[in-house]
Amino acid sequence: MKIFDISRPLFNGLAPWPGDTAFRFDLNWKMAEGATVNVGGVTMGVHNGSHADAPFHFEEGAATIDRMPLETYFGNAVVIDLTSRFENNSAAEITIADIGQAPESAPRILLKTGVWKDPRIFPERIPVIARDVPKWLQERKVKLLGLDVPSVDPIDAKVLVNHHALAAGNIAIVESLDLSEVEAGLY
């Protein structure tokens, strides 16, 4: 069985969410300078790189990530390749028609848009799911939606409509995946 690491690598220079704390790794103790061991330190906001959005992220008093059922994040998933759809229009919506071919045997859907090509530059616009998608996903018993963009809502959103709708449908959110090396299909 081949395993794909779909996490976006963390590195100094990774573009953070605008206004958030950027990822930074510093080697504080160095064997090359006489230390017994190499010891590093990390500073970052929790939305750098690939990450799961716990409901607490967007709803006061909701479940934090340590309360999320771990089994939600493991199991059958389908990767849907939408890169050709968004080649020339990164602001378009992801519709039910775009994801409707997902097999019902995959309760986790991963959307590959290909619009965030350079992780050193934060995107100005991204494709986001249409407002009717969360309900459709809930009806199909999807338990996780993952995307290769930094949010399920527009970058400039002041109200996170899609985040709330997905949470209401008990659908976990994983953002900023690296699906660049993964073909469409069932995994």
Key phrases:
10 strands; alpha/beta; two-stranded antiparallel ribbon; 187 residues; globular; single chain
Any overview of this molecule?
The chain has 187 residues and is α/β, with parallel strands linked by helices. 12% of the residues lie in helices and 20% in strands. The chain has a six-stranded mixed β-sheet, with helices on one face. The chain has a two-stranded antiparallel ribbon with strand order 1-2. The longest helix has 8 residues, at 161-168. The chain is globular and about 60 Å long.
Précis, in short:
By secondary structure, this protein is an alpha/beta fold. It has 4 helices and 10 strands.
Task: Kindly report the spatial arrangement of strands forming the biggest sheet.
Answer: 3-9-8-6-4-10
Rg over C-alpha atoms, rounded to the nearest angstrom: 18 Å
For the terminal residues, how far apart are their CA atoms?
10 Å
Please state roughly what percent of the residues sit in beta strands, choosing from under 5%, 5-15%, 15-25%, 25-35%, 35-45% or over 45%: 15-25%
Largest sheet: 6 strands, mixed
The helix-strand sequence is: EEEEHEHEEHEHEE
What portion of residues is helical?
A: 10-25%
Shape: globular
Q: What is the tally of beta strands? A: 10
From the helix content, strand content and strand pairing, which structural class follows?
alpha/beta
Count of helical regions: 4
Rounded mean pLDDT score: 94
Q: Which ranges are low-confidence, i.e. pLDDT below 50, for 5 or more consecutive residues?
A: none
SSE topology sketch:
Elements lengths: L23 E6 L9 E5 L7 E3 L24 E4 L1 H4 L6 E2 L1 H4 L8 E5 L15 E2 L3 H7 L4 E4 L13 H8 L3 E4 L9 E2 L1
Parallel strand pairs: 4-6, 5-7, 6-8, 8-9
Antiparallel strand pairs: 1-2, 3-9, 4-10
